[in-house]
Amino acid sequence: MKSARLLLALAALAAPFGLAASALADGGIYAASNKIAVGGYDTVSYFRGKGVPVKGNAQFKVSWKGTEWRFATAENAAAFKANPAAFAPQYGGHCSWAIAQGYLAPGDPTAYDIVGGKLYLNYDQGIRAKWRKDISGFIAKGTQGWAKIPAGKTYGGSSWFGL
Length: 163
Known about the structure:
single chain, alpha+beta, globular, two-stranded antiparallel ribbon
């Protein structure tokens, strides 16, 4: 009984530190100046149909994490709304290779890969070629780097973040 109370007390003491750490993680969604995520591409389309991304339509939009997400169909919008994390690009749509290098850069919706059921964007096709040389290594580094970015931080013209 004393052990259970001790564990509860320790958990209560540790909880604020866990919250503080999570508040520093998970930068924001890269949406350029127009607040439209992924350049207006339908992120569900990367995973469904022919697996080729298509542009979304303003008629089928969803607001998530302070940005507008557009979809080609009402069905895709509903799928995203039901589970945005399943379809949103990793690292908030920033360049995956850049995050692994320690800085923020925009992601290009046409320079992408789906790895392990997750969407990764890169700056352009040249950077995508670099990314493909060690995808698993860059994902490991990128995940660590992304966790260090303050909540909501996005690329804003200055790419170096010094992670």
